[in-house]
Amino acid sequence: MRVLMINTPVSTHLTPLVPLAWALRAAGHEVMVAGREDVLAAAASAGLNAVGIGDRLKLDDMLIERLGGKRPLESWGRPALDQLSNVGSLWMPQTLDVLPDYLDLARDFGPDLILSDPIEYLSLVVGERLGVPVVQQRWGVDPISDQARTTGQTWFKDVLAELGLSDLPRPAVLLDPCPPSLQLAGTTPGTPMRYVPFNGNGQLPQWLRRDAEERGAARRVAVSLGGRTLAYNGVPLMRNILGALGGLPDTEVLATVEEEYREALGEVPGNVRLIDPVPLHLLLGSCRAVVHHGGSGTAMTASAFGLPQLVLPQLADQFWHGDALARVGAGITIEDAARQDDPAPVREAVAALLGEPGYAKAAGELREEMAAMPAPSRVSADLEELAGSHRAGR
Questions:
Q1: pLDDT for 213
Q2: Is the pLDDT of residue 211 over 70?
């Protein structure tokens, strides 16, 4: 079976799909990623073959210019649910420019199946043109994909008319790695698949191999604001978080901070260790709690490890990840910018996550729920059957 992966031009939209791509490869299928330059490095880090189509869009540069020196939460606040329909507007117009290139590639490659993230609508058009089933996969808690279809319908209106369609096609399968207890109520039902953490590749640091006895009694807390929050004027937020956690007794803090931001960050408390970004699935096994921005990859990885979480959301679906974790009792969310900038609420929240057993219990139950979901290898076999049935029915 030949599988063509088509993704939006955001690297973190590709990485959640990597474990399924690995499962397909392990089953003997050929997998090819097609995307803009923005996602090629992520594909390479996962060991996936890729074809570049179109120039880099530089979405980060566009957002930073719009922020005007503030972080997203300060500039825009929490979006209303219907405002998430605009999430894809930064790249959907440019998608139409390269649609012919994607169609040419798809015809040459001859896929039996197309795999994409949940808001890459070009995949649906390509699948419709070629008569190939399309499988889309969510990232986690999903307030976006149902909302964004409205925008996709608008941008692809003329293309759909050429196909004789009045609406965007639906995927043949919508895979959902989010455990049901965490998923947003009312979201279009999906097919469950276990979330397998993949946060990029990297070496296991030697210092991370030391055991609990060497660390002493210190509880370890990870702080990770993802790959973009610091770039989006988030250094003051990180400074406040680390200052707040400096007052926690018997607590070791590991904070992922790129070298380029450390001078602006300034001196940190003695119990804080600044580390280069490392794949979180290598780090979290030694931690008791996680502080993060609510990105789907971080939230889902921490949930897979059964860790209580403090979520400090900044934009888009990050707020809904915080809501969901708080609802099931596995986390606390602070979404007010002033309270995020106040050390006291941050310190109190992390102290509660570490000291109140209810959070660890709920996080452990969430981990067990995720572990019971079908593995990507199981889903791979089902997708092979789907493609085979579709070929037989042509």
A1: 47
A2: no
Contact present, 15 and 297 (Cβ < 8 Å)? yes
Tell me, rounded to whole angstroms, the distance of Cα 68 from its chain centroid.
25
Which whole number is the average pLDDT over 113-123?
95
DSSP characters over 198-254:
-----PPPGGGG--HHHHTTPEEEEEE-TTTTIIIIIHHHHHHHHHHHTTSTTEEEE
Q: Are 27 and 377 in contact (CB under 8 A)?
A: yes
Query: Once rounded to an integer, what is the mean pLDDT over residues 235-244?
Result: 97
Give the closest residue to 241 by CA, choosing from 338, 343, 337, 314: 343
Residue (of 93, 91, 108, 111) closest to 29 by Cα position: 111
- Burial state string for 89-103 with b = 16 or more CB within 10 A and e = fewer than 16: ebbbeebeebbeebe
pLDDT over 60 at 217, yes or no: no
Say which amino acid occupies 194.
Answer: R
Please name the helix (run of DSSP H) or strand (run of DSSP E) that holds residue 309, with its range, or none.
Answer: strand 309-311
CB 210 within 8 A of CB 44: no
Look up the pTM and report it.
Answer: 0.95
Q: How many residues does the chain have?
A: 394
